[in-house]
Amino acid sequence: MRYRLRGVNKCNNGWIDFFCSSNDFDCNNFTLKDFTLQNSNNAAGIDIDFSGLFVLSNVKVSSCDQFGIRILRSKNFLLEDCESSSNTDSGYRIYGDSTRSTLNFVLNNCDATSNTTEGFNIASATNTLAYFSVINCRAINNTGDGYDVTSAGASAIDGTFLSCLAYGSGGIGFDVSVLSQRVNFISCFAENNTGDGFEIASSFS
Predict the structure, then answer these.
(1) Is 109 left (phi over 0), alpha (psi -120 to 50) or beta?
(2) Which residues pair with 184 in a beta bridge?
(3) Which of 5, 38, 123, 138 has the most CB atoms within 10 Å of its CB?
(4) pLDDT tens digits for 13-53?
(5) Which of 96, 159, 170, 81 is nearest to 127 (CA)?
(6) Residue 48: beta bridge partners?
């Protein structure tokens, strides 16, 4: 199936949900562009699950009850020029589990501001979350960490943060609590955070 949502749109007190069962993987090749969403009472303002080959461009999400943008068990996607702010959980939640890994994604020029927990939360429960790039992104004045990368079990993480900023976090600026994985930081800055600017798991190499 193919989806294309485009144009100047606004949604108040609603949400967008793309979901396919693990056997279908039909939610592929869609674009959500120039869209504003606020005050959602769903688990996430924009919720994407079991999907791939999609783009979110110039999407603004704010004041949602939980996550601003949540992407689960998906691959081969791009978020560019997006904003997620003032949500009661993470601004961005990208997650893989034992059902399906999340991999091959790029976040470019995205902002996470004044969210109640992390600005950007990239996590894997028991499966692989790998090959991602976070480029020119900003986490500003979030209550928790600016960027939080976590994994459990046999996860393999291979990611790069390039020219990213963590400012005014209530926790750590860049928090990588994964062991023996590859996470690269290039020209990233952490300023005025309550915790450390960068904190890496002790056995990180």
Answers:
(1) left
(2) 160
(3) 123
(4) 445 666 555 544 456 678 888 888 888 777 888 988 888 88
(5) 96
(6) 18, 71
